[in-house]
Amino acid sequence: MAWDRNQMAARAAQELEDGMYVNLGIGIPTLVANYVGDKDITLQSENGMLGMGPFPFEGDEDPDLINAGKQTITELSRTAYFDSATSFGMIRGGKIAAAILGAMEVAENGDLANWMIPGKLVKGMGGAMDLVAGVGRVVVVMDHTNKHGDSKVLKSCTLPLTGKGVVDRIITNLGVLDVVDGGLRIVECADGVTEEELRAATQATLV
Amino acid sequence: MQKIYNSAAEALEGVLTDDILIAAGGFGLCGIPELLLAAIRDAGAKNLTFASNNAGVDDFGIGILLQTKQVKKMISSYVGENAEFMRQYLSGELELEFTPQGTLAERMRAGGCGIPGFYTKTGVGTVIADGKESKMFNGEEYILEEGLFADLSIVKAWKADDTGNLVFRKTARNFNPPAAMCGKVCIAEVEEIVPRGSLDPDTIHLPGIYVHRIVQGTHEKRIEQRTTRKREDA
């Protein structure tokens, strides 16, 4: 037993507090928006929008209104639009309280790798390096192990970094870990997962 | 001064040559100067360097200039969704300078503001920092990034008046204002040119001082990822 994608997203939504401006990455992080409940959260889309709404109804798609994943979306009553320099000004300037994003690897010192596998197709970092360097808090949501069963929670990253020492908290299908002095600290285990199972799937130092 | 041109091809006359750096607006296929890109393809200029967040898809956006091998180098943050790009890059025909998205936007903005360099935390400790000067400010490390000074800017706006004041629409604004600012000459293609005085001066997104040539046309405005919800879900 472990958390599925939606349960991981629901757990990540608990990280968000009333009034926060937040940037959600592509994949599981996008699902976090479904679990914010009554909290007053403003979602930023780094292509130039605060107050991102849900997908449009069929037939209402607007080619001038997309999110950072290039998907058609809608606006809300609170929405504001701006250019890319302003958008990353608010990211770099620390105005965005948190970013929730996926990862290929995270290390015990908070290093994050999520943009490039050498020798494989290179697509680019997009806004990920700016986000992890600029926002107040970085929460990673990912599977604890890769498809070969190897830990993605490592002593040090093997892949090219997106940011150095930038991750604050890791939410995986097996549990929640915080980056602290000397390594990672277990915050909680996922439903039906024992601490022993979580430890066994983690290569990083646990303190 | 007359800024309105009859076609994208006419607007490019005298400013498009081989071997230049072109800053292009747009994010994905949203808000891209599609008419000017098509006219650049038809004009056949070669060895072009593009500063543009993305490289289009195979048959739209900058992708059409990759098909014709007119692009020498891309300065971009994300180049997925483009098979021909990958083929040319992996075979060494095409140069690529990956620049984080926010750094790219700021490099354009800085260039337009006469700022040749700025320090940023983005990319510290990554391959992006390789070979770049770094400096400590308040105990934190920053790297030096350079402003972009383009020979030509091509952007897409929603409306313009005849003096070049521009209004963009929703997220189609994206890189267009910073791209417009950093060029020696900026050409804007718009959906509608309106008489001067009909745009509210308080709602102009980019003042006409940055815009030298304007062309009006019909845009395909292709959608890259059509995502919807069913009406029953409401």
Beta-strand residue percentage of chain B: 25-35%
Order of helices and strands of chain A: HEHEEEHEEEHEEEEEH
Query: What ranges of chain A have pLDDT less than 50 throughout 5 or more consecutive residues?
Result: none
The major pleated sheet of chain A works out as:
9 strands, mixed
User: What is the H/E order of chain B?
Assistant: EHEHEHEHEHEEEEEHEE
What is the average of the pLDDT values of chain B? 96
Keywords:
heterodimer, A: 207 residues, alpha/beta, 9-stranded mixed sheet, 3-stranded mixed sheet, 5 helices, 17% helix, 25% strand, B: 234 residues, 3-stranded antiparallel sheet, 6 helices, 28% strand, globular
Would you mind describing this structure in some detail?
- The complex is a heterodimer of chains A (207) and B (234).
- With 207 residues, chain A is an alpha/beta fold.
- Chain A is 17% helix and 25% strand.
- Chain A has 5 helices and 12 strands.
- Chain A is globular, with a radius of gyration of 17 Å.
- The two termini of chain A are 24 Å apart.
- The mean pLDDT of chain A is 96.
- With 234 residues, chain B is α/β, with parallel strands linked by helices.
- In chain B, 20% of the residues lie in helices and 28% in strands.
- The longest helix of chain B is centred in the middle third of the chain and has 12 residues, at 101-112.
- At the A-B interface, helix 3 and helix 4 of A face helix 5 and helix 6 of B.
